[in-house]
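Re: the 93-residue chain
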Amino acid sequence: MKKEELLGRVVYSKVGRDSGKAFIILDKIDDNYVSIIDGDLRKVEKPKKKKIKHLNITNDVIEDIKKLIISKESLSNAEVKKYLGNRDVIKEG
């Protein structure tokens, strides 16, 4: 996927101790890695670097956050938590 298509997209971690947790893609680092945030443990100031193959990518794009990321405006952790707050944790199994 292109960088523009990934930004602001909701993803779920498939592996690791954060498995099943919802995140938002903040940046595409290269073809294999993205930076993800949740506004809680993975804050905007220190995003998590995660392999794309370890993420379950959804079709949900949070347009408000995507616009802030693209325009390089200030994005707060509270905004991220607000949008992810009502997302259920999905466990694969």
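The longest strand covers residues 22-28.
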